[in-house]
Structures are given as C-alpha cells and as structure tokens.
Design a protein that fits this description.
Oligomer: heterodimer
Mean pLDDT of chain A: 85
Shape of chain A: globular
Structural class of chain A: alpha+beta
Radius of gyration of chain B: 24 Å
Order of helices and strands of chain B: HHHHHHHHHHHHHH
Low-confidence stretches of chain A: 1-62
Distance between the termini of chain A: 12 Å
Number of strands of chain B: 0
Strand content of chain B: under 5%
Strand content of chain A: 15-25%
Low-confidence stretches of chain B: none
Largest sheet of chain A: 9 strands, mixed
Number of strands of chain A: 19
Radius of gyration of chain A: 24 Å
Shape of chain B: globular
Largest sheet of chain B: none
Largest interface: A-B, 65 and 66 residues
Structural class of chain B: mainly alpha
Chain lengths: 541, 330
C-alpha cells in the first residue's frame, strides 16, 4: 500500500479517503523516511565458526511509506514462544527478536547478542546488546535466562511447542551483560539453533500478565510495535523509533489474511496490498502480465518427498525403493505442475545447507531401469497406494497424482492414490510408532536451521520422531556428527550420511519447494529462504 | 392453547434443539480425524511434549468429564480458551458475530429489493418476455455457486473496473452510524462502507433473491386467480389497486415467513462467501478453526450460529402465530 503517487489514486482510494480513519489505510503519509540503518556486524565466534557479517540495512526512500502484507492465514496469538508455525512467526517476528538472527541467505548474524562464542567447557556464551523492550525497560540477562527456560521447561509457565527447537539445554546462567547456556553434551549446532529459535521476552511483563493478555499484546525489542490487533484478521504495526539497528524505513505495516489464493492475487492486482504469499502456479502469469505487480520467488528451506517404510513389503527392498526413484519424472513435475518453481533433489539435505553433498546426482527418470529393479526386488506385480495430504504443500495433490500415475505406468507395479486431510494423515505419522504410519506417503519438511542433521535425524534415524528407516550405519554417522567439534569434519560426516541416504532411498526424492510471492511494483523487496517476511528491508520504487 | 403458552412451548423446544446442537458439536470432535495436539505441536515433537500439551489443554481427561465441564462452563457463559490462539472463545466469537449479521442483513436487503418487484412483474406479465427473463435470471441465481459468483464479482467490479474493494471490511455499519453525529463526513463514510459490503452482499444474497422471486411469482399467480381478486376486478376497482394492495399483501405473508427463516440460513451459510471476500465474520473464523483443529473456537462458533438459527425460528413462529391465531391451535 505504498501510496506516494497522487496520480495512482483511484475511485476506491477516493471512497476510502472520504470515509473514515478506521478504513484500511490507503493514504500515504508524506514526510522524511529515515535511512535504513547499517546491518550490524556479527562477531567472530572462537569455535571456528565465524559470525557472519550482518546484512546491509536498506537505504530507505526519501518518503516514509506504508506496506501491506496478505498471507493465507494469520497468527496463533502473539505469544512468541507458544506456537510452532511459520505464519505466527512472521507476525510476531516483526516485534520479538532472538539472541542471533539470520540474513536473507540463511547466514547467522547478530541479534540481541553482539558476540557469541563457545567457552572452554563447551558451553555457549552470548554477550548481550544494550537495548530496551518496547515499554522502555532495558533487556537484562535475567530476561534472556527466563525466556530460554520458558521454552525448554514447562514448569516455568507454558508447555511450549518449541521445546524441541532448543535441543537439550540443561542450564542457563545469567551473568553481567552476558548469558551462558549449557547443553546435554556438545551441541555442534548451538548457534544455528539460536539463530532460528528463542525469542526474548521480558520476565516481569510475562509474569504480570496472563496468557489471554500476552496473546493479544506485545512487548518485544524488534523493528516494529503492534498498534492494532484484530485476532485472525489484521495486525497493524508502527516502527520502533528506538530500534537498535537504526531507523526503520517503513511508516506503517499492515498484515492481513485471505485464505483464498485468488483473493490474495486480486488484492495485489487491485493495489490493496504490497506483498502476497503463496501465489499458485496457475496465477503466476496473471500477476506477471499485470502493470502493477510482479512475481518474486526464492527456493525455500522445505523439501518435498515420498517416504517409504523400510519394514513393510515391497518397500523393505532397497531395489524397489530405488526403482520408485527412477519411476518418477521429477523434472517434468517441476516443469508442468509447479510451473518451474522447484529444484530437483537427490538427498535429504538441500543445497546451501550444512552437510549438502554436491557430488550426489538425483536419480534419473528411467522407467526401464525402474522395471528392471522391480523385477530384481522380487515384487513384480505388486499393488501399492500413495497417500497425500490435500492442500498442505504447493501443488501437493497434483504432484502426488503425477507421481502415482508415473509409477502406475510401469508394467510391473500398479499404484493408486489416496487423498487425505493433512491433520488426519499427520495423526498417523506422529504417534511415535512406526506401525501406525502409512506405507507410502507424500510429506514436506522445513529445515529452519539450515543444517542437514535437522532433517536426517528426525526423519531417517532409528529413534527419530518421524522415522521410517532403521539403519545402523546411518544412525552411527548421525551420532558422530552430533559429537564432532570440528565443523569441517562434521560436514564430511554429514555428506557421507547424505550419500548413504541417497543409496538407501527411503524416500522418492522430489524437490525443494519455492516460496512464491506477488510483489507490488511500488516496492522493491527480496524474499528469504526461511519463509520469514521482513518488510523492514523493503524500499520504495 | 393461549398465545403465551404457545411461545413458551416453542421456546422450550428451541432450548432442546440448542442442547442437541451443543452435544452434536461436542461429539464431532471425537468422530472427526485429526487431533488438536497436531495443530499445536510441531511434527517432530516428542511424546513428552505432546503429553504436556494435552494436559495443558485438558485433553487427557475422560470424555464424560470433558463434556460435563463443557456444559457447566457454557451455562456460566464460558466457552473456554482457544487451543491455538490462547484467547477466550467468547470474546473471539462475539467480536466476529456483528460482521456476519451485518453481511446477512445486507444480503437480505439485496434479495428483497430485487426479488419482490421481479416476482410481481413476472406474475403480472405471465408468459411474456419479462416473465421468461425473470425465470431465466432466477434459475441462474439458484444454480450459480456462491464462491464462483464471488470471485467473478471481484474480478469484474474490483480488479477490472476498480469500483469496489476486493475484500475485507475496512468500514462497518457502526462507523456509518457514528458519522451522523461524529466528525467524519456521512456520505463519504457511507460510500466507503458500500465499497466493502456491496459485492459480498450480492454474492450471498443472489441465491435467496432467486428463491424469493420464484416464491413471489407463484404466490402472486395464486392470489390473482382467487375469487376476491376477480370480484374486485368485476366491481371495476383499478388494476393497480387490486394487484398491489390486495393480491400482493396476501402474497407477502408466506414470503416474509420464508425471509425470516432464511436470515438464520444466511448467518450459517455465509461461510463460503466470507472466505472468498476475507470478510472477518464467523464464517472465516469457522474455516480457520477447522483448518487448525481449534475445537473450542469451532464449537463456540457453531453453537452461536445454531442458536441464532433457533432464535430466528422461534421469533418467526411467534410472529406468525400472532398474525394468524389458527397456528396456535394446529
């Protein structure tokens, strides 16, 4: 809704202008926008992992401007520690910050900590920035200690769904301007975890207010402050004038929801919003051919695959699993179903993530080889069923239909498709008992930590919460990775694990999902790989 | 039976239906697949985390205790806490109700304003082009799906011709009312309100408009063929007086009854229209709660929708009985 041009005022804008201040703000405010502050420098870690440089702050335009973001769904309340979903993270992440943060490419940068390092004992120590919460009170090490404990220990206040995210934190010690966190054993990805998780809240504010209040109000340290909150409908923010990273070049931010993708696209084309999420592939050309908006996409940290249970026939056969990988034409699916918005994969770790093995080629589409492997596996003539969630991932049903039909076209396998409501499918997948899981199903997995272990361990190791595989060699490799202090050596172990996962083929490796945004021509904004939306980095065109 | 006893009887029956709604809505949670814990916990949450969340939500209690507690809380006006949003359900549901009622009333206005003249015109010009046109129009209205009509209206009138807003509810009828006494210009506020509500009201009202057009036409034809109309015409009364004062008046009694009952249907049926237009009413709350397995909010919304329906029915029955005392003795 950047509305700096008077000649763009149309009849609707006129109506709204003439209406009331309560109308969704379309009017642009003139005034001097501040220059975007420089991104702060990340400090060097002394464990061999360099703190990467902070991203450059945007320059900011001469005029302050307003931005509207329309997503498919709104937040689950404003408590930053009482949710486990991306949409809520996008909404509360404008207000709350963690000790570390990530740049658009996923690199670790400074957050509320200015320095971070491992101590001699293997614990991690964060030196805190001198800054304040939105209510003006300074951020203290006690607040940080309380925030981390509130996530990992349900006795501190809530049973946080994020308790797994901070791994095995055993102790948090608050010092003078610093905090030291201990883990159960050496945690090689401690900084990756804190760059994605662990929003900091003020202890006294949390303790003085009940859940109903905390879920409707905010008190963070981030670039924006909430001024209006209409649950499930709209959140309006104003910039935090005292933000530690400099002026925020956005005058007002509005986040709204339209569950219908066509309505989101129509909102964008009618210039009622600036950024819309999840533009479906069939709507892309309509946006691209318009004069007022374009498409901006980025490979996300989410991988899509078909998982096969190792303990049931015919998927107990490695040849059969490999045959399924040869039977599915992933490139054709990406081209025809996803309109090109996908990257083919051949291993569980995505390119750019720690542990990705660049030497692994995806399984080539080869139906003859697939038929041969099926014969070799001894399961010729088998009938299998692929289960897919409906509407959970971009084009999930269409992808599953294409894959099932390609497998079905093999002369010695017949494959049917069963569509299932996501929550019901997940119920089977998450019982912690492999016997409850479907034999063959489509699933997606987002890896916000950008580290291979965060996919392989839960999904492919014997004790993984969602595993469908049992393989001692892979288990051992992941144990080794978990206990290796040398980052380079750890990468090698993870690469070896990826090669093994490729060969074992517990999945039909499909693709890396893309996040597809529609972006108004009035602004310039680059999306991020972790699906977070950062409107404070947008500039006026 | 006296009128008072009739109303009391209907009200008690209504309460029984509301209790039935509450019980069915409560039971739905246990027969539909998918658990609320899956919506709250991440996919890879440990069993300990899941158990802790279940305990926090009270889902680890036996069913009869959950049911008894639910009814007890409802009687105290407490619909519980949202699993997902961590907020009180009563506040959430009742903050959305005005938007839905506003949309349902606006849709009724659209339906009445167009259907009754169209029905009368159709009946008085029977088997003429106007009649065929009206029949075709109402057939189209009945057979057009709400969501498709909504999307088409947005595409044409909001995106292409830029006359209305695509979605949302930036200005509500309360703002319009306040502008009469406040500092905002009344006409401007009214126009801004119309920019938001017109398209969803048309999308939601079209089906009922078509239905009532057909009802008015057949009712009017029926009345026009009756003896009193012919007698009036034979006495030489003006055609306009006979048609619009006598025949139309009698036609409208059943039409108004249907309209009253349809208001309840409109409140419940606004779900799809609200989703298409991102109208922040109970419908979008219901869809959102279904997607997220937020049972307390879903239960609260359905109970409010069901109760509104029952309430409208009882009121219509009472008005009907008042107007036609024979109903009381049936």
């Amino acid at each position: 809704m950047s509305s700096d041009n008077d000649d763009q005022i149309n009849r609707r804008t006129m109506l709204t202008y003439a209406g009331t201040a309560a109308a969704v703000g379309l009017a642009g405010c003139s005034g001097n926008g501040g220059d975007g502050g420089d991104g702060s420098d990340g400090s060097d870690g002394d464990d061999g992992m360099d703190g990467s440089d902070g991203s450059d702050g945007s320059d900011g335009g001469d005029d302050a401007f307003e931005i509207g973001v329309t997503m498919g769904q709104m937040d689950s309340g404003l408590d930053p520690q009482d949710h486990a979903e991306t949409n809520t993270e996008i909404i509360v992440g404008q207000v709350y910050e963690g000790l570390l943060d990530r740049d658009k490419e996923g690199g670790i940068i400074a957050g509320l900590a200015t320095d971070w390092e491992r101590t001699e004992e293997g614990d991690v120590r964060f030196v805190l920035r001198e800054t304040s919460f939105h209510n003006g009170d300074p951020v203290t090490s006690e607040d940080v200690r309380f925030s981390i404990r509130r996530i990992v220990d349900e006795d501190v206040g809530i049973a946080s769904p994020q308790s797994n995210d901070l791994g095995s934190v055993t102790e948090v010690v608050a010092g003078d301007g610093e905090v030291t966190v201990s883990f159960e054993g050496f945690n090689p990805i401690a900084f990756q975890l804190f760059a994605t998780n662990g929003p900091i809240m003020q202890q006294s504010w949390v303790e003085e207010n009940d859940g109903n209040y905390i879920n409707r109000n905010t008190n963070g340290t981030g670039p924006f402050m909430v001024t209006e909150y209409d649950s499930g409908n709209q959140v309006v923010y104003e910039p935090n004038e005292d933000y530690w990273d400099g002026d925020v070049p956005v005058d007002e931010l509005t986040m709204e929801a339209s569950s219908e993708s066509s309505t989101r696209v129509n909102r964008l084309l009618a210039e009622e919003t600036d950024i819309v999420t999840n533009v479906p592939p069939q709507e892309v050309s309509r946006v691209e051919s318009s004069d007022v908006a374009g498409i901006n996409s980025v490979p996300s940290a989410r991988i899509i695959f078909l998982q096969m249970r190792y303990d049931v026939e015919p998927f107990s056969s490695q040849q059969f699993r490999q045959a399924m990988n040869h039977a599915v034409d992933v490139e054709s699916i990406i081209e025809n179903v996803l309109n090109g918005f996908g990257n083919i994969t051949g291993q569980p770790t995505l390119e750019g993530h720690v542990g990705h093995n660049p030497d692994i080629e995806p399984y080539p589409y080869d139906p003859d080889e697939a038929e041969r492997l099926v014969e070799e596996s001894g399961h010729a003539g088998v009938e299998i069923t692929l289960q897919t969630p409906i509407g959970r991932y971009l084009g999930d049903v269409e992808i599953a239909q294409a894959a099932a039909s390609q497998i079905d076209s093999l002369s010695n396998v017949s494959c049917e498709l069963e569509q299932r409501e996501f929550s019901s499918l997940v119920q089977d997948i998450t019982t912690g008992n492999i016997e409850d899981k479907p034999h063959f199903n489509l699933l997606g997995w987002g890896n916000g930590e950008f580290d291979g272990s965060q996919t392989i361990t839960p999904l492919m190791t014997t004790d993984g919460a969602l595993t469908i595989l049992e393989n001692e060699e892979l288990d051992q490799l992941m144990v080794d990775a978990e206990n290796t202090e040398d980052p380079d050596e750890r990468v090698e172990i993870l690469q070896e694990a990826n090669q093994l996962a490729h060969d074992l083929a517990p999945w039909v490796f499909l693709h890396q999902q893309f996040s597809v945004y529609g972006v108004s021509g009035d602004i310039s904004w680059e999306p991020r790989a972790d699906e977070f939306i950062d409107p404070d980095t947008a500039t006026q065109q | 039976m006296s009128f008072g006893r009739f109303v009391l009887k209907r009200s008690l029956q209504g309460l029984g239906v509301v209790w039935g709604v509450v019980t069915v809505v409560f039971a739905l949670r246990f027969v539909t697949p998918g658990s609320a814990i899956n919506a709250v916990a991440p996919l890879d949450a440990s069993q300990e985390t899941r158990q802790a969340i279940a305990a926090e939500l009270g889902l680890d209690q036996p069913l009869y205790i959950q049911y008894g507690q639910y009814i007890f809380d409802l009687l105290r006006g407490d619909m519980g806490f949202s699993y997902i949003r961590g907020q009180e359900v009563v506040g959430l549901v009742f903050s959305r109700l005005p938007a839905t009622v506003e949309l349902a009333l606006a849709a009724s206005v659209v339906a009445i304003a167009l259907s009754i003249p169209l029905g009368v015109l159709s009946a008085t010009r029977r088997n003429q082009p106007v009649d065929y046109g009206a029949t075709l129009f109402s057939l189209g209205g009945i057979s057009t799906p709400n969501f498709w009509l909504g999307i088409m209206l947005i595409l044409i009138f909001a995106v292409e011709f830029d006359v209305f807003n695509t979605s949302g509810r930036g200005v509500d009828v309360g703002d319009v009312a306040l502008s009469v006494i406040g500092s905002e210009p009344f006409v401007g506020t009214l126009l801004a309100w119309l920019a938001y509500i017109t398209l969803p009201a048309i999308a939601l009202g079209t089906y009922f408009m078509a239905l009532i057009t057909r009802l008015t036409r057949s009712g009017m034809l029926d009345e026009l063929s009756k003896g009193y109309v012919q007698a009036a015409q034979a006495k030489g009364l003006p055609q306009t007086l006979v048609r619009y004062k006598h025949a139309l008046r009698n036609t409208l009694i059943p039409v108004i009854t249907v309209l009253g009952l349809q208001l309840g249907t409109l409140i419940g049926g606004a779900v799809i229209t609200e989703a298409v237009f991102s109208w922040p009413g109970l419908g979008t709350l219901v869809i959102d709660s279904i997607n997220r397995r937020d049972w307390p909010v879903l239960q609260g919304s359905l109970i409010v929708i069901g109760t509104s329906f029952v309430l409208v029915n009882v009121l219509v029955d009472a008005v009907y009985a008042y107007l036609d005392p024979q109903v009381v003795n049936d």
